Amino acid sequence: MTADELDLRLEVERIVPVAASEWSAVAERFEEMERHPTGVAGDIVIIQVAAGLAAVEQSSPAERVVRRLGGPDEARRFVEQRLEAYERMWDGCGCKIDYYK
Q: Most buried of 30, 40, 62, 89, CB within 10 angstroms?
């Protein structure tokens, strides 16, 4: 997948799974706005895409999930909620992240 193809898909789809190798090949084409370590599953990276902001998460070692966000406020809320969920995981809650929801 190229960066242009990802941009096009994000205009239509809210969530786009991308192979880790494909993400590595196009990541530098997107401006990184923020990076938040999860302590469990890599970093949550907020990037600038054609449709606005998007979050990149590591759903598995072989995959990244790119999620279109509405803007800075939604990005902030999304990161806060995700980090809270990861914190609960450290406490042994048994919860899992649904990256495709």
A: 30
